[in-house]
Specification:
With 329 residues, the protein is of the alpha/beta class. The protein has 2 domains: 2-93 and 294-328, Rossmann fold, CATH 3.40.50; 95-285, NAD(P)-binding Rossmann-like Domain (Rossmann fold, 3-Layer(aba) Sandwich). It is 38% helix and 15% strand. It contains 14 helices and 12 strands. It has helices at 11-20, 31-37, 53-58, 77-82, 95-110, 113-121, 130-137, 157-170, 183-188, 197-200, 223-227, 246-255, 294-312, 324-328, and strands at residues 2-5, 22-24, 43-46, 64-67, 86-88, 149-153, 173-177, 192-193, 206-209, 233-237, 258-263, 283-285. It has a 7-stranded parallel sheet. Strands 2-1-3-4-5 form a 5-stranded parallel sheet. Helix 11 links the parallel strand 9 (206-209) and strand 10 (233-237). Helix 1 (11-20) packs parallel to helix 13.
Amino acid sequence: MKVYLGEVIHPDAVALLEKNAQVVRPKDHSRQAFLEALREIDGMVARKVHVGAEEMDRASRMKIIARHGVGLDSVDLSEATRRGILVTNTPGANRESVAELALSFMLALARKIPQAQKAMANMPKGDIGIFTALLKQYNLTGIDLEGKSLGIIGTGRIGSTVARKCIAAFDMKVQGYDPYVSAEVMKSFGVEKVERLENMLPKIDFLTVHCPLTEETRGMVGKKELASMKKGAYVVNTARGGIVNEKALLEALNSGPIAGAALDVWELEPPDPQDPLLHHPNLIGTPHYAGTTEESLHRVGMVAVEEVLRFLRGEPPLYPVNPEVLKKK
C-alpha cells in the first residue's frame, strides 16, 4: 500500500510508516510535485496541506486522509465523504501542549514578559538604579493571575484542560461558552456555563479560544464582542485563525479595552510580515506551533500513522470523522 507523506512528522511515526507501507514523497516543494505524488496513493497523512476536490481528483485511488492534528479546516470533509474517502484525526493527542501554551500566553501577557525582555536589552551595564526607571518607562507593572476571571470559548478536551490548570494553579474563576457541552459536564471540571457569549465577555479578565473554525464560529469574536469586554482584558487564541477578527483586534488594542493579546493562529498563515497587528507592542505572535512539542508531535504522529495503517489493513479506525463512509464499504 502506498501512503503519501510530504510534511515533517515525528521520526518514530515516519519509521512506523516506512516499515509497514510504501511511502510516497514529492520530488520537491512545488505544487506540481505535490499533485504528481498523489496519483497512485492509497492514503495520506496530512498535517497542514490543503486537501480539496482538485487534490482528490489526482488521488483517484485514495481511501483515507489521516489528519495530523484535530482541526478539519484544511480538508474538504463533505467532498471526501461524497467520494467515499475516510477522514480521521487525532483528538486529544495535542491537548496538553496547546493548553500549556495558552496558559503560558496568559502569564506572559499578565507579567509583560516580552516588554521586560526588551527593557533588559536596553539597560545600561551595571547601573542598578536604572531598574526602577525601566519599570516606569516600559510600563512593566503587571497583574497576578491569582483569583482572576477567565472565559473559555470551547470547553472540549483542550478548553477543559485549560480550565483545570487555571483553577488548580491560580484559583481562577472560570466561565465557559460552548453550545455543545452541558452545564453538568462543565461543572464537573469547575466551569460555570453561560448560554450567551455576550453575557460572559464583560465579566472576564482573560478570554481564551479553544473551538474549531466553522461557519458558526468564523468571526465569533469581532468588533462588538471586543468592545464589550472590560478595560484591561486580554485575548488568547490558540485554536484557529478567523475566529477572532484580526482587524477588530488591532482596533481594540489601539483604542479599545483590550490591554494585550496573544495569537498562535492567523487568518492568513503565515501572516503578512508587514501586518501592523503582528508588530503591535502588546501583541504576542507565534507561528501556529502550540502543538509543536516533542511529546505532542510523537503522540499525534503515531496516532495519525496508526490510523492509516489500521484502515488499509481492513481494521476499523479509532477516530473516524466521517464514519458514514464506513457503512458504505
